[in-house]
Design brief:
The protein has 707 residues and is of the alpha/beta class. Helices cover 34% and strands 9% of the residues.
Length: 707
């Protein structure tokens, strides 16, 4: 029996014993040794690695010939798929591992593969050197999304041996590459790697004193991290030497660019090696990324050589209390929201009541010249202000307040001995007025000067004309009554019968005192008749049933991999780990006390909520529950009551079931205590003394390399 007659299944069984590293070269050697046998060639296309420039050219030629062969075949029309479709379905990974590969050849190769409907690429790795790829090439390569992609890696090495300022003059930066990835409309790949090789990797002979080109100019990645394409990313490796990457990760984008969306909501692994990071930014990363488990910070120069063991103790305590810090920030945001909501409701009630009492003239549309004129022959009408509630005052009461009648006095003698003229009686004044004054007009136009008078002007005028027998009306400060151009009006019932008791002026920021007349408009109920009454409206936030506390989450950190300075001896690593564990235990004890107090608060009727870790809680669930709605006293309410609406300011929060005995505990599922995170100081190389299940071992599995 010859090799040509062996079935394909037998070759498949033999190749299954090979490792992934040896599989591809072995299949290639066997196919060349026995070319007429039924060798399964799909193993050659599962993982394509272009390590030399001519390999990309030969691969493109091979695919082009297969396309022409399928088109020229007589059975092409009857076959469901062509030869190109068959080869494209075999390709799972493409890795361009050459700094000088022609970018145009790579672009044409992807155009050819994308023309096939069976092209399902899962992994893409591209090396970008100083002369092969430009930003326009990457934009064209990544503009169209790869729907089945699971891993994307971009490695930059822009350094040159000879000084050139072409990049600075042309502005050839790769910020547009991030925008191209962010434009993908759906969540695709769970792993993303963007690396810029550090300049220290260049040999000493190649180092120069001139400035090297930059990869990213602004490093504005806040909107990029909140894009839909990265909503499912669980592993991120973002290495930009000496750049403030952590600050860019946690910074908020402009309001119009999805600032309400959390960055990387599913992230569990983060590698920021060789970047510029401070020690306190570790806390910031843990607060902003609630599901983060593994952090790798090799070569970041975070810790100094003179650092004392107490600093590691403080770091361990802060890492354990990350949930408390996150809960306090969320409570602060919720408190500000409730204050703004109560203020808006209060202003809305005031504006509705003021508009029902005194509605101003509606401005009708007209010519632009009349609309912008500075002079008007039309008398302005008073319009109630929406900032404070001012009941109307009858015109007669206004006239009496501004021009009070002067009491009658007997003729007296001046110091010089001359006698004053006798005062006219009320009848004489009436007769004199009827003879000389024009006919009476409407009461609203009887005092034209009040059109532009302010509240302070009326009070000052009243105090000047008042006699010693009447108490002066105190001038209201500017903070309690805003300046308005209309007439200040008051309810007739609010005018004091005794001048010694001036009327009370209420500002919008104080508790509203509703001073009713015989008929008082109430929101949603029209005109309601009743006796004059005074009631205080308390803000909803002060109500005990509306008070909300956020339960701090348990810490999620599992491992922390850092590089210590060379001055720190290897023998002191155990001391550093012990100090970190002691600080962690102290923080866990404090966390237990906080959660126990919240258990007591929940039993006393205070609403306790937690920051949900599920996708629905982060997106803002929709239900019919309100911030102050009635809930099940046992805590086991329905799902609609447990998922608040986003408009209530409770997006990302879920109600805690007070009947659950483990709801306020500090033990995770399957463990009896919160274990301290693993500290690894071995670096990224596999030859170091790594701790089991450290962050480096996770990176080797996810990123598929030893970097």
């Amino acid at each position: 029996m010859s090799f040509d007659t062996l079935p394909v299944e037998l070759y498949e069984s033999i190749f299954s014993f090979l490792t992934p590293v040896d599989l591809r070269p072995t299949v290639l050697a066997v196919s060349r040794a026995i070319p007429l046998s039924s060798i399964p060639l799909h193993h050659l296309y599962h993982q394509i690695r272009v390590q030399y420039p001519n390999q990309a050219i030969r691969l493109h030629g091979r695919l082009s010939r297969s396309q022409r062969k399928g088109e020229e075949s007589e059975t092409y029309a009857s076959n469901a798929y062509s030869y190109l479709d068959q080869i494209a379905s075999w390709i799972h990974e493409i890795s361009i591992e050459s700094w000088v590969t022609d970018a145009e050849v790579v672009i044409n190769l992807f155009r050819l593969l994308r023309s096939s409907e069976r092209f399902r690429l899962r992994s893409l790795n591209v090396w970008i050197g100083p002369s092969n790829f430009v930003p326009e090439h990457l934009e064209e390569l990544l503009t169209e999304p790869l729907l089945n992609l699971k891993y994307l890696s971009l490695r930059f090495k822009p350094y040159v041996q000879k000084a050139t300022y072409q990049q600075f003059l042309k502005g050839t930066y790769f910020d547009s590459t991030l925008k191209a990835i962010a434009s993908w409309s759906s969540a695709i790949f769970p792993a993303l790697s963007i690396i810029q090789d550090p300049i220290d990797a260049i040999t000493a002979a190649e180092k120069r004193s001139f400035a090297q080109p930059l990869v990213f100019f602004r490093l504005d990645i806040a909107s990029f991290l909140r894009s839909p394409a990265l909503s499912s990313v669980t592993s991120l490796r973002f290495r930009i030497p000496a750049r403030p990457v952590a600050r860019a990760l946690c910074s908020a984008p402009p309001p119009q660019n999805s600032s309400h969306i959390s960055p990387l909501p599913e992230l569990e692994f983060l590698d920021l090696s060789s970047s510029g990071i401070l020690e306190n930014e570790i806390d910031l990363l843990l607060v902003r990324l609630p599901l983060l488990k593994h952090i790798v910070l090799d070569g970041c120069n975070i810790f100094r050589g003179d650092q004392s063991p107490s600093d590691w103790r403080a770091l361990g305590k802060r890492c354990a209390l990350i949930g408390v810090q996150r809960a306090r920030e969320r409570e602060k945001v919720l408190k500000e929201y409730l204050e703004l909501r109560d203020a808006s409701l209060l202003m809305g009630d005031i504006s509705i009541a003021g508009g029902a009492i005194n509605e101003g003239r509606k401005i009708k549309p007209g010519r632009r010249g009349l609309a912008t004129a500075t002079i008007s022959f039309r008398a302005p009408e008073p319009v109630a202000s929406a900032s404070a509630l001012r009941p109307t005052l009858p015109p007669i009461a206004i006239q009496k307040a501004v021009h009070p009648p002067v009491p009658e006095r007997s003729p007296t003698t001046t110091p010089q001995g001359s006698s004053l003229p006798p005062q006219k009686t009320k009848k004489d004044r009436t007769d004199n007025t009827s003879e000389t004054s024009p006919p009476k007009v409407a009461a609203s136009n009887s005092i034209p000067s009040l059109v532009s008078a302010t509240l302070q002007d009326i009070q000052s005028h009243y105090n000047k004309r008042n006699t010693k027998k009447k108490s002066a009306v105190p001038v209201v400060p500017a903070s309690t009554g805003p300046r308005v151009s209309s007439v200040a009006v008051f309810a007739e019932s609010s005018l004091p019968s005794n001048p010694a008791s001036p009327p009370q002026f209420v500002g919008a920021s104080q508790d509203v005192q509703t001073i009713s007349e015989k008929k008082l408009p109430i929101k949603g109920k029209g005109i309601v008749e009743g006796k004059a009454r005074t009631s205080k409206v308390k803000p909803a936030a002060l109500n005990k049933s509306n008070k909300i506390r956020v339960l701090p989450a348990l810490p999620s950190l599992v491992s922390l991999s850092v590089t210590l300075p060379s001055t720190v001896e290897v023998g002191t690593y155990s001391l550093v780990r012990s100090q970190f564990e002691e600080g962690w235990a102290e923080g866990v004890t404090q966390l237990e006390g906080v959660r126990a107090r919240l258990r007591t608060s929940a039993g006393n009727g205070i609403r306790v909520m937690s920051l949900g870790s599920g996708p629905q809680s982060r997106k803002g669930d929709s239900s019919d529950s309100e911030a102050g709605s009635d809930r099940n006293s046992t805590g086991g309410s329905e799902a609609s009551a447990r998922r608040p609406r986003a408009k209530d300011g409770l997006e990302g929060l879920v109600d805690v079931d007070r009947t659950d005995p483990d709801a306020f505990g500090t033990y995770k599922e399957g463990s009896v205590s919160l274990l301290s995170p693993i500290l690894c100081f071995a670096g990224p190389s596999r030859d170091g003394q790594h701790v089991d299940n450290c962050g480096h071992s996770v990176a080797w599995k996810v990123m598929k390399d030893d970097m």
